[in-house]
Design goal:
The protein is an alpha+beta fold. Strand 2 and strand 3 (55-67) form a beta hairpin. It has 4 helices and 4 strands, in the order βββααααβ. Helices cover 22% and strands 46% of the residues. The protein has helices spanning 73-80, 83-90, 92-96, 105-111, and strands spanning 5-21, 31-47, 55-67, 115-125. A 4-stranded antiparallel sheet has the order 1-2-3-4, with no helix packed on it. The longest helix has 8 residues, at 73-80.
Length: 126
Amino acid sequence: IDKSTINNLFLTLSDCNIDYTSPEEFATASRTIFRVGEVRLTSNIVTPKGPHSVFKLTVADASVNIANTRVRHNEENQNLSCANVVQFLLGRAGAQLNYGIPPNFEQAISRMNFVQVASMDCLDSS
């Protein structure tokens, strides 16, 4: 008796950054950050394998940001840290302290001299 099974695969990634820095040997310093708000992959995995495979891929809120300088990691860590969350949790006491932390990703990378060169709202593929 052949036993067939169907497994549902769901993969979701949220707020992901892929950070590429050119090697120091390159004549021009550069850095690229690919930012993706959300990636969803769904598929049905059937055994034994059938003649067709079905999947759906959704990518939302993606952008490509480039800079022509290298940013020191200490400076970057200060800009991208979770201290603004601590500030929010502290309420008024935290609001009176001025950490100089940008409230969102776009302002943080702007401070590091990145320029957004491409953006995409949503892509659905089946």
